[in-house]
Design goal:
Distance between the termini of chain B: 65 Å
Largest sheet of chain B: 12 strands, antiparallel
CATH class of the largest domain in chain B: Alpha Beta
Largest sheet of chain A: 5 strands, mixed
CATH architecture of the largest domain in chain A: 2-Layer Sandwich
Strand content of chain B: 35-45%
Strand order of the largest sheet of chain A: 5-6-1-7-8
CATH topology of the largest domain in chain B: DNA Polymerase III, Chain A, domain 2
Structural class of chain A: alpha+beta
Number of domains of chain A: 4
CATH topology of the largest domain in chain A: Alpha-Beta Plaits
CATH class of the largest domain in chain A: Alpha Beta
CATH architecture of the largest domain in chain B: Roll
Number of strands of chain B: 26
Largest interface: A-B, 19 and 28 residues
CATH superfamily of the largest domain in chain A: Reverse transcriptase/Diguanylate cyclase domain
Number of helices of chain A: 13
Structural class of chain B: alpha+beta
Oligomer: heterodimer
Order of helices and strands of chain A: HEHEEHHEHEEHEHEHHHHEHEEHEE
Chain lengths: 373, 364
């Protein structure tokens, strides 16, 4: 876990090295449970579960490592958790608190790079490739992040450092909790060799079972499977598996999760009867959609209106434009036109929705000559 | 009905009708032409209920009569016909017999009464405009008409008469084209919005004089035997004079042909979704560049007379090209203010009193 060569020397001596990415996968240890345990010292060292009530039909959202020692796992019914360990302390989840805490931790990530891709509230990928200052390695940064998060937020996290997301994710899980695992490019194959195929991105119970029938248990087994068999059995997914088994993963770290659509809908306490009142609602929904797009610096190519009639039949009408509509007024005028392609007005309506899709983060925006009327 | 006429003359009148009839219509009769034989001619009409076209073709009428016939099939038959002598005859109710050369066709029609009645323009005084001038003006603005249905007030061009002057303006909200021409005898009147389709079809006409009439809801354009009638587009056209910037202080003057060539080459490397060419103005001239994230980039310099300072702005190359192909002069001038303000483009020393194109930039 020592520091790597300075990047300047590295690029001279090992030209191909400049192509190697430095990816971190940061994963807060049993995050929800840890937040409660940090704030309430009496919980520390005890089996703590966050999630549904053990008397109801709830499931475990997070379990402390003490609880995990009893075999309690995420997504397990809470009642089963009680059976495994009757002393388990059940806590109600408090997502606003987790979100708040998460944003503090993400702020720390952002001190080192802007290329941060959140995977969830407690998990993120960082691409340090272009942000390493000379004489500083990704490993250093990982140590620094762990130190800062502990000192400033009182939380532990595990980090995997690797040339890509796949291996970084597996590495962060390797020494958990409170661990740091560094996998250098030349170590990738040896590192993956003995691990269960279940660790590979995209291998769930079903794929694992089918692989098991082929005698594949470890990632090493998977690598030795010939590519034809893989593609024949698993199609396109097989090609991905072939790469992943070799520690090959080109997926970029995306700074923002790519949205596919953005929309708002509303159910009315009283059915809408006239087109005039529906238009008013379409305008209001369009405002919200336009505002959401603007805030995220997105442009949309397709606008969809959703209509649910009084009898609950639901339909949608869409329009795709060559030029993205930008303003709320433009979205609304499309929305009103789409509404008129339905029976709304002749029939009463209990729900209206406006959705923008075909989103583009391209910052190129054609400016308008006139303020939209 | 029975009429004898000349095939080439008939084809010449059938061709412009094709632009009017609806290809995909839920009302079958709208894909038909109304043919009426009377007064030594075959009168032909087409309509899509918004735009209608009537014309005629001289012939020898043996018996008056009328029928609606599918426009496309009739043209196909006439185009393929071997020989110039054509007879159109109704031998049997609802069927049109076509004799052309040695060929004999019998095609099913619809009753003439099913054809929509065409709007009549109240017999108001006509304004006469030299048609070649008018057609040239339409060609200079038509490309800027919006094709978005949702912006209906932009889906046509504004036609406005002043004293001895005619103005046409079109915009799609991103760019605008305006042309003024001096035409003797015109008087000040309120502008009207002419639908895109009407202007498009008028560009195919030929003739010396255009007789223009304005009714309450319709406009009539007569050129020779042809009369096009369209509904006036409702809506308020934006305040276009306001966007023709007068304070653009950075200018570049260059050859139209060279500019067009540079833009064409550089635009080969624009992105598929966002077509933008970056235009950088420096003392020595203009530099054009484009980047396609998947492919690579292109760059080319164009020496020209530049003044007023430097800037870099993103422009849609299609907007530039469409304007450049309508320009008739050798030299053009581009005027800029900043990267978020409109570029204003003029031909240098043109015959038109004023021909201007305003292009809003793309924020890069």
């Amino acid at each position: 876990m020592s520091a790597s060569y300075p990047p300047s020397a590295r690029s001279e001596n090992h030209p191909t090295d400049s192509l190697v990415r430095r990816i971190l996968h940061c994963d807060l240890d049993c995050f929800y449970a840890q937040v409660h345990m940090r704030d309430d010292p009496t919980l520390r060292g005890k089996p703590v579960v966050v999630g549904g009530s053990p008397t109801g039909r709830g499931v475990v959202a997070a379990a402390s490592y003490e609880a995990r020692a009893f075999g309690i796992r995420s997504a397990m019914p809470a009642a089963q958790a009680v059976r495994l360990c009757p002393d388990t302390i059940f806590l109600k989840s408090d997502f606003s608190r987790y979100r708040e805490e998460s944003s503090h931790v993400f702020d720390i990530f952002h001190r080192f790079t802007d290329v941060v891709q959140p995977a969830s509230l407690d998990e993120a990928y960082l691409d340090l490739t272009d942000d390493l200052v000379p004489y500083r390695s990704a490993t250093h940064v990982a140590q620094e992040i762990r130190r800062m998060v502990l000192r400033e937020r009182g939380l532990t996290l595990s980090i995997g450092v690797a040339p890509n997301r796949l291996v970084a994710k597996i590495a962060s899980d390797y020494h958990k909790p409170d661990g740091l695992t560094v996998v250098r490019p030349h170590q990738v194959l040896d590192f993956l060799e003995p691990l269960s195929v279940r660790r590979v991105h995209g291998v769930g119970p079903a794929t694992a079972e089918r692989l098991g029938r082929l005698g594949v248990e470890t990632i090493g087994d998977l690598r030795r499977l010939d590519p034809e068999t893989l593609t024949a059995r698993f199609g396109r997914h097989g090609r991905g598996l072939h790469d992943y088994a070799r520690g090959i993963d080109d997926r970029p770290v995306r700074t923002q999760r790519e949205r596919k659509s953005l929309g708002h809908e509303r159910t009315y306490s009283r059915d809408l009867r006239t087109l005039a009142e529906m238009d008013e609602q379409i305008e209001w929904l369009s405002q919200r959609v336009a505002h959401g797009l603007e805030k995220r610096e997105l442009v949309a190519r397709t606008i969809t209106v959703k209509v649910r009639y009084g009898d609950f039949t639901t339909l949608t009408r869409s329009k795709t434009l060559a030029e993205p509509p930008m303003t709320a007024d433009h979205i609304a005028s499309l929305g009103r036109a789409l509404l008129r392609q339905t029976d709304a007005g002749d029939r009463s309506v209990r729900l209206l929705g406006v959705t923008a899709s075909g989103l583009d983060r391209d910052a190129m925006v054609q400016l308008e000559l006139f303020d939209r009327p | 009905m029975e009429i004898r006429l000349n095939r080439s003359e008939l084809v010449a009148e059938l061709v412009p009708m094709q632009g009017i009839v609806e290809r995909r219509t839920t009302i079958p009769v709208l894909s038909h032409l109304l043919l009426r034989a009377e007064d030594d001619q075959l009168k032909i009409a087409a309509t899509d209920l918004e735009v209608s076209l009537t014309s005629s073709c001289g012939g020898e009428v043996k018996e008056d009569g009328a029928i609606a016939i599918q426009a496309k099939k009739l043209l196909e038959i006439m185009r393929a016909g071997a020989g110039e002598d054509v007879t159109l005859r109704i031998d049997q109710e609802g069927m049109l017999t076509i004799l052309v050369g040695q060929s004999h066709f019998k095609i099913r029609g619809l009753p003439a009464e099913d054809f929509p009645s065409l709007p009549a323009i109240d017999a108001e005084q006509a304004t006469t405009i030299p048609f070649p001038t008018f057609r040239g003006m339409v060609g200079k603005v038509a490309f800027a008409i919006s094709s978005e249905e949702s912006r209906f007030q932009l889906s046509g061009a504004l036609m406005k008469m002043g004293e001895d002057q005619l103005t046409l303006v079109a915009t799609d909200g991103h760019r605008l084209a305006l042309v003024d021409s001096e035409i003797q005898g015109l008087e000040d009147s309120e502008g009207v919005l002419v639908p895109r389709k009407a202007l498009h079809e008028l560009q195919r006409f030929d003739g010396d004089d255009l007789e223009f009439r304005k009714g309450e809801h319709h406009l009539s354009f007569s050129v020779g035997r042809r009369q096009l009638i369209c509904r006036i587009l409702e809506g308020t056209f934006p305040d276009y004079e306001r966007v023709i910037a007068k304070d653009n202080d950075k200018t570049a003057q260059c050859s139209k042909a060279e500019l067009s060539g540079v833009v064409q080459r550089v635009s080969l490397l624009t992105g598929d979704r966002a077509r933008a060419v970056k235009v950088a103005l420096a003392e020595e001239g203009l530099e054009f560049s484009a980047t396609n994230p998947d492919l690579g980039e292109a760059r080319e310099e164009l020496a020209c007379e530049a003044s007023g300072g430097t800037l870099a702005i993103g422009l849609n190359p299609d907007y530039m090209q469409q304007w450049l192909s309508a320009v008739e002069t050798d030299q053009v001038q581009l005027q800029f203010k900043d990267e978020n303000s409109q570029c204003v483009a003029y031909p240098v020393d043109g015959d038109d009193q004023r021909y201007v194109c305003v292009i809003m930039p793309i924020r890069l």
